[in-house]
Input
Amino acid sequence: MRVETFCEAIAGICGDFFVGVPDSQLKALCDYLMNERGVSARHIIAANEGNCTALAAGYHLATGKIPVVYMQNSGIGNIVNPAASLLHPKVYGIPCLFVVGWRGEPGLHDEPQHVFQGEVTVKLLEDLEMGVFVLGKDTTEEQLSQALEGFLPKLSQGYSAAVVVCKGALSYGEPVCYRNQYSMVREEIVRRVAAAAGRDPIVSTTGKASRELFEIREQNKEPHGYDFLTVGSMGHSSSIALGVALQKPEQRVWCIDGDGATLMHMGSLAVIGAQKPKNLIHILINNEAHETVGGMPTVAGGVDFPAVALACGYRSAVQVDNYDDLEEALGACKEKEGPLLIEAKASIGCRDDLGRPTTTAQENKQQFMNHLKGDR
Output
């Protein structure tokens, strides 16, 4: 289905407000919204899906109209609290239409972090007492319109509804090319961090950074046990690294993070700053984009992350935008007490032949734990 047709159908029951967290399954919708609205009062790219839901509630309170929240199904966990304790008719009765990209759809191959989430997606939404309609490749405009009209009685009572979008169900003929002004390449940043870390453990964030780290180890014929690749649970890598660092105070621990992930759960910076682990080095690669799911912008271009980190209690924080300064900052880390933050400004993009880890998540966990125990 053309995304223009999809949005026209939605407009029949909803207001004129979209808020979301980008998803590769919804790339057609994301690109359409960027072309038609950009980032504006009618279209906001939020920090996380709970943030989206609260923004949507505010829109309804101000207008009385139904907002649209788009997201990947991995974000359902972030909406459970506001959907159950804010939107639901037993509380305020604020209706919302969720458009959910279905990663891990049963019967289709997907990455391990999406498999269980995919299996329970529809059930989770139904457990939240939402009406659910699955939009597939063969869904007709008439079927979609009938489903949306069928939601109206419940929406009028303050319930929410969800359209779950299958892989390839939406199409758009005008893709957007996302770029920024920075020259450092993320994979090269990751390579230099890995070299600086040596045998120190690294916790890397969800997405392409972890894929690049895996391939760097392959190229260097180094053990994968040095690294914990956080394939899911976006935004939590720094907290995982903190948990490791506190239990291994004699071992320097590195975290490779991303701007979208850091924004998603930025309160973790305050927890790290409060705990003040002397052995934690936090590398934030900031390309101001949700690159792994298509490249849509984050708000990270307007955030002074070093200032935030210092305000949260980090002992040192710097920003770099070239390799010479990066090398200097990485070298200085070994002489300073943590927690330390290096924000590295990076370009958008990766090589076309970037692969995926060939070990399972369980194997990665065990190898990493063995390395932390000192097994070689």
